[in-house]
Amino acid sequence: MRRADIRIGATLLAVMIAIALLSPYLVDADPRALSPGSRLLAPSASHWFGTDQLGRDLFARVLWGARISLLVGISVAVLSSLIGTAVGMLSASNRQLDAVVMRVMDGVMSIPAILLAIALMAVAGGSVLNVVVAITIVEVPRVARLVRGIVLSLREQPYVEAAIAVGTTQPMIVIRHLLPGIVAPLIVQATFIWATAMILEAALSFIGAGTPPSTPSWGNILADARALWQVRPTLIFFPAGFLFVTLLAVNMLGDGLRDMLDPNQTEGQ
What is the mean pLDDT of residues 70-76? Predict the structure, then answer.
């Protein structure tokens, strides 16, 4: 079952990434081009998903929106994993520093993620880069606490104590014994951060605190369509459907990797 989850999730995710990368070649329409004479058209051969209230081609906007969502998700997952790993390992290596760093991490985690992201965006202003930075700040404490806990556990293992006893330098202990032990759980955590980042990006854009309104992101498309739900429900169905499939793919991949890499899972499970 775990391998099936990984295969299905990886396949769906590969398709969505391919759509995002090839979107300039899959559609000829400009996702930002206004056409007042073609407002709220139903899906047709010329406009596969129809048009929005400004006459913009919805198919082009949804496909281009995949680029924003996946870019934010991947960027946040990579950055928060790297920064969180550095913070967690640094904290675990020094008791005095650990007390200070972990209290800061606890303070950040005590604030609801969406509220903290909104506050950061209010200070920084709306842009894709600021969205990535804001969500990364939100996610770093979770990675830091995960890495800290794993490192503290690994340092108690006999092979690490033996390496310390024979005089192995700290950098070599980290490279040979500690980093390999955090790779598997970190990969799994990164997939869930990826999904969370896409949800937060869509939520921020939906309420007008994320990417600029002119940027064709799924959150912005949903925000534009909410007032036209009864008139043209497809304006919501298409971007929401793409977001749902992408999140499903990332979560299936993460669940499959967690089950496969967790040493406590039995083969029968």
Answer: 94
- DSSP helix/strand/coil, 40: coil
Q: Give whole-number Cα distances, 189 to 154, 155, 255, in Å.
A: 18, 21, 10
Q: Any bridge partners for residue 51, and if so which?
A: 57
Examine the pLDDT at 261 and tell me if it is beyond 90.
no
Question: What's the CA dihedral at 42, 43, 47, 52 to 10 degrees?
Answer: 50
- Give 57's strand partners: 51
For domain 2-14+62-261, say whether CATH 1.10.3720.10 is its number.
yes
Domain spans, the chain: 2-14+62-261
Q: Which two tokens stand for residue 198?
A: 């896409």
| Residue owning tokens 């790993």 | 85
pLDDT at position 169, please?
74
Reported in sequence order, the residue ranges of the chain that DSSP labels E, i.e. its strands, are none
